[in-house]
Amino acid sequence: INTILATVMLCGGVYAIQIEITRPKGLALELRNAVGNDEMELYFQPQIDDTGAIHGAEALLRWEHPQRGQVPPGSFIPVAEEAGLMPLLGGWVLDEACRTLAQWSEDPVLSRLTLAVNVSASQFQMADFESSLMETLRIHQVAPSRLQLELTESVFIDDMAATVARMESLRSTGISFALDDFGTGYSSLSYLRRLPLDQLKIDRSFVQESLENDRGAALVNSIIQLGIDLGFVVLAEGIESPEQHAFLLDCGCHEFQGYLFGRPVPADAFAAHVWQAAEPAPMARPKRAAQG
Ligand code: C2E
Ligand code: MG
Ligand code: MG
Ligand code: MG
């Protein structure tokens, strides 16, 4: 916010008054231009099922700043929120995600994947969120069932009833919902009864602690059981080691995401990764009978 000193003439007198106008400064101003300057990019990280097959991807926003280099979303999303740029940025993300899904639909392997997109609370609560999302899907001719929206617990704090109604309406078109960073928010567990969710994403802090001590192990196991008992698909985030993966598989976790299976990468590299993973393992060359 810039403060501008303005001098006005009023009733013949001269008064100096301060008026405040909202104008994004610094990073926020650059952020607004970044969308138009083509500095935003979506990266894709694989999500695997309990057989090890790639089941889907999460789209993660990257900002290639011409001077600063790559700015992580943790530093610019809060700025975008503050500056009221989330509708612009989030709209770009959904458009780009649907464009990607349309490209994938022409490929026999990629067309089987779902794409999960992070949606911030303020973005989800915009009056025209639903209509503009349906329009984006229509323009790119993408089936809504290919898209999953990731919400965090913060979206339920303001207006639970309106949020649930909007989720139900979007779900009736085939869009699915994941609750991101589960267990790190401050809301009570009682909301899980009412939420029309498909998937719980267990935050990576629980995964990290799962092998550190008995309580860490008990906690993540209980969270997974809770998710299973409530009928959700349970996905664990931030898996970095085979030991973590083995433990979580043992707990009954359905899906996995983390550096162990692939870091977030640009679309081309992601497609190459998926094609490679889909290739049948090279067959052992049959031994030829010794010829006489
Ligand atoms: P998130 O949705 O929970 O995404 C997972 C984050 O964990 C990503 O960070 C990902 O790169 C990172 N990650 C994945 N596997 C591992 C692992 O094995 N180890 C570790 N240490 N980290 C791992 P990233 O890409 O920096 O994004 C951070 C957060 O920014 C996201 O957390 C999400 O809340 C937000 N974000 C990213 N893209 C968007 C977007 O398009 N819209 C909105 N509203 N938020 C976004
Ligand atoms: Mg999924
Ligand atoms: Mg996410
Ligand atoms: Mg998360």
TrEMBL record:
**In this protein, which residues make up the domain named EAL?**
24-278
Query: Where are the bilayer-spanning segments?
Result: 1-17
Print the keywords alphabetically: Membrane, Transmembrane, Transmembrane helix
Its domain of life reads: Bacteria
**Listed name of the protein:** EAL domain-containing protein
Native source species:
Hoeflea ulvae
